Amino acid sequence: QVQLVESGGGLVQAGGSLRLSCTASGRTFISYLGWFRQAPGKEREFVATVSWSGATTWYADSVKGRFTISRDNAKNTTYLQMNSLKPEDTAVYYCAARSIRPVTMRASGYDYWGQGTQVTVSP
Length: 123
Description:
mainly beta, four-stranded antiparallel sheet
């Protein structure tokens, strides 16, 4: 089992920045740590994912160039640095872990999920 705990959400004005953190604990091997988001009335969508080593990253086109995913292996923590935020980035952001390879951007491919953290971007 893997436990994921997110933090760092909040309210920010458009153009601002936030950094989300996700700390993992447990004994199951993880291949990828990802971030997804879900806005009211919409399906959960892929934001970014990173290999366990931190060497390789993938991004949704909508956040490429604005968001950066990274890992601190010593702290078992994955970060999502979000810059140039837009009102359409408003959503609950979820951290997720995938045990097996290869990488996927489908939410159904992730085995473990955090509780979610709200990000609200005002115009």
